[in-house]
Amino acid sequence: MKDCWQGAVKISRALWYEEVQVCTFCGEVGDLVCPTCSTNYLHPELGRCRGCGKLILKEKTCCLDCGAGRGPQHLDQVTAWGHYSGALREFIQKIKFEAHPRRIMKIARPFADWAISQLPAVDGVVAVPMHASRLAERGFNQAEVLASAIHWELGLPIIEGVERIKPTPSQILLSRRDRLHNLKDAFLVREPRFFSGRSVWIVDDVTTTGATFEAVAEVLRSSGVQEIYGLCLAAGLEIKLVPLGN
Ligand SMILES: [Zn+2]
Ligand SMILES: [Zn+2]
């Protein structure tokens, strides 16, 4: 009964008193991301594979795949804010499939803080583009909303001019090799002059094998981009963890 009452208080606070800061993921009053959710989903105590962004043990610099040369080749570094699981995964899926792009603004500050603490400052951000047919279906590109969040929080310009010219089916069940094949010739830089000699962060919501980052990075590299970094909300995890209860 007590738990039920506390839950009701938590929800009514979140609904009626917007000035009360609540955790984006669990509704706990306090921080934008409470310590329990930070431990369970963001794992600041873990390292990120420099090659593909996967969460790894702090003492390592890259995952087994990237260490064996099976990771992206055109990126200087990739980082992910958290692990694609639990409430962070639900948060991302809700944004995409229930069309709640505004929810991204809730986490804009901590996401931007994470990005600038992990990656070098750059000339601008590039959102992973969505094919026109997918955009027409969904109505927005979540990677663009994320890039806007980074722009608002850090003042980094958004650089446009990369297009997705090939509609690609869902990548979820594909291996890294098949994903790369699927993404072959999928992206095009319309205005190479906007990119030549620049340094950029490519922004996306989720990365698993790094194949999408790699495909975008490849066309950026051939357009003369000097430094390319990948930034996303969530990535996979190389080790097994036991979550804390709320
Ligand atoms: Zn929480
Ligand atoms: Zn890796």
UniProtKB/TrEMBL annotation:
CDD domains with a match to the protein in the record: PRTases_typeI
InterPro entries in alphabetical order: ComF/GntX_DNA_util-trans (IPR051910), PRTase-like (IPR029057), PRTase_dom (IPR000836)
Tree of life domain: Bacteria
Family from the record: Belongs to the ComF/GntX family.
PANTHER family: DNA UTILIZATION PROTEIN YHGH
Protein name per Swiss-Prot or TrEMBL: ComF family protein
Organism: Desulfosporosinus fructosivorans
